[in-house]
Amino acid sequence: MKHLRTERVRPTPKLFTYVLVGFIALLGLTCLYYGSSFAPGSRKSDEFDGSNHRVRTGIGSVRNRDGVLAVSRFEVPKSVPVRESNHLILIELARLHHCPPPERRFNCLVPPPIGYKIPLRWPVSRDEVWKANIPHTHLAQEKSDQNWMVVNGDKINFPGGGTHFHNGADKYIVSLAQMLKFPGDKLNNGGSIRNVLDVGCGVASFGAYLLSHDIIAMSLAPNDVHQNQIQFALERGIPSTLGVLGTKRLPYPSRSFELAHCSRCRIDWLQRDGILLLELDRLLRPGGYFVYSSPEAYAHDPENRKIGNAMHDLFKRMCWKVVAKRDQSVIWGKPISNSCYLKRDPGVLPPLCPSGDDPDATWNVSMKACISPYSVRMHKERWSGLVPWPRRLTAPPPRLEEIGVTPEQFREDTETWRLRVIEYWKLLKPMVQKNSIRNVMDMSSNLGGFAAALNDKDVWVMNVMPVQSSPRMKIIYDRGLIGATHDWCEAFDTYPRTFDLIHAWNTFTETQTRGCSFEDLLIEMDRILRPEGFVIIRDTTDNISYIKKYLTLLKWDKWSTETTPKGDSLSTKDDRVLIARKRLWSVPANSAS
């Protein structure tokens, strides 16, 4: 895998840094020793084992000295190292934050913590999780006065409170709808508000209670000073992700959200000429809202009043207006046209972005301290011309033409995935119990058809768009779904044991084409897959045959099935489907296998 593009700038006490570096160095040497047989740089070519029998091999891809991609055959290892439980957090951090060169890579399985239990099922999990699964009770102590979470025996309960809404997120959401004067005090406003970006989300209780309003939030923790907040959110079954508000754009296309929310999110919005607010401006749809809430105590603090005045001045220059204000909550509105921008005095900052800037380009693209103007088509189109939810899920969105897809092709894709998911669920039926699947990832989401076909099930889907298909991510958000652009030659920014089901359609073929490692991808999938979770892999016959050899090594051998799927407009004659289930396993304390 390649180095992650993200940047994390967070001061760490020197003593802790020295200890952490020392542990990681020791762990790296240990993993190198035990993992050498599994490291990409150490695979042997097809050869004889000294007898008359040829060594069993799998398929991989390499580049020759001229840089030409070629297929070669590698030996499948007999075992995959497992790290000791007391090294668990170091491995989680190492895989999460960077990908070292092959010779220093942590090619080993991450065991569950001691006492791990299969997560509680949704919707029970919204309000309580097993303490053993995320044994970080210090956060409950630090936030005890804000009603975030409470340790209760072998469980952790979530009363629904937050830094700015001690009395519960449900009441806070109603108050926001009242401020905006939406009918029936419903924040979804008849389906026009669907996608929300919650910045500095804590344990994501705001996003949890939005779900009953038919609103899905991308809950983002860019400054996780208390640590593990997102891990709690994911354990609860709430859509959320790690992220960095630093120098690079967030991995979402322009005009993806109707509302952005910051409740004492500890973000310095004024830094670097307001570049972070300008990133929010890029992400909000025409007429979108930014809800900014701070504790009442801040109202009497001179420094915070100064910050508030400076933000007001910046918003005015960005042509945003105050839509509503109550106590310490302010709701700003983004303009629906370019008219105000064009009326500003010459030289007013921030400037408009140059015509050559692509506001939808996100992967490894630096944030820009400029305003992304609307195109001629989007000019004066509130909510980008999208129909209300839930019709939005299946109605062809206006931006289809930007990626060269016709409405007819969009409808055909939607129907194809509806039938595919029916076929998948027939195969899964003997093993799946009610609400046993909640967190789902689609590794190559294309137009979002897989996620759309799951809409009648009580799940949420992280739609991942490979970098080579990144222009299509805008369609995911225009359908009222969520996701992120990602390079599968790298680790995904999430904690271990996140997803109950991972769907990979041609992901291995694409990985092979780009010269990246099958083994790295399999280990990364295992890291983010929950025990007793499922993988659905749809790929070529050769790739499926190779992956099957790893099922036991990865402990994906609780149950599996393989079939030749029905042909459709997206399939090839070589398509095969493999479904496998990961078993719950553990290692004794202070030992590895």
UniProtKB/TrEMBL annotation:
<comment type="similarity">
    <text>Belongs to the methyltransferase superfamily.</text>
</comment>
<protein>
    <recommendedName>
        <fullName>Methyltransferase</fullName>
        <ecNumber>2.1.1.-</ecNumber>
    </recommendedName>
</protein>
<dbReference type="GO" id="GO:0000139">
    <property type="term" value="C:Golgi membrane"/>
</dbReference>
<keyword id="KW-0325">Glycoprotein</keyword>
<keyword id="KW-0472">Membrane</keyword>
<keyword id="KW-0812">Transmembrane</keyword>
<keyword id="KW-0489">Methyltransferase</keyword>
<dbReference type="Pfam" id="PF03141">
    <property type="entry name" value="Methyltransf_29"/>
</dbReference>
<dbReference type="GO" id="GO:0032259">
    <property type="term" value="P:methylation"/>
</dbReference>
<dbReference type="InterPro" id="IPR029063">
    <property type="entry name" value="SAM-dependent_MTases_sf"/>
</dbReference>
<dbReference type="GO" id="GO:0005768">
    <property type="term" value="C:endosome"/>
</dbReference>
<keyword id="KW-0735">Signal-anchor</keyword>
<keyword id="KW-0808">Transferase</keyword>
<keyword id="KW-0333">Golgi apparatus</keyword>
<keyword id="KW-1133">Transmembrane helix</keyword>
<dbReference type="InterPro" id="IPR004159">
    <property type="entry name" value="Put_SAM_MeTrfase"/>
</dbReference>
<dbReference type="GO" id="GO:0005802">
    <property type="term" value="C:trans-Golgi network"/>
</dbReference>
<feature type="transmembrane region" description="Helical">
    <location>
        <begin position="15"/>
        <end position="35"/>
    </location>
</feature>
<dbReference type="GO" id="GO:0008168">
    <property type="term" value="F:methyltransferase activity"/>
</dbReference>
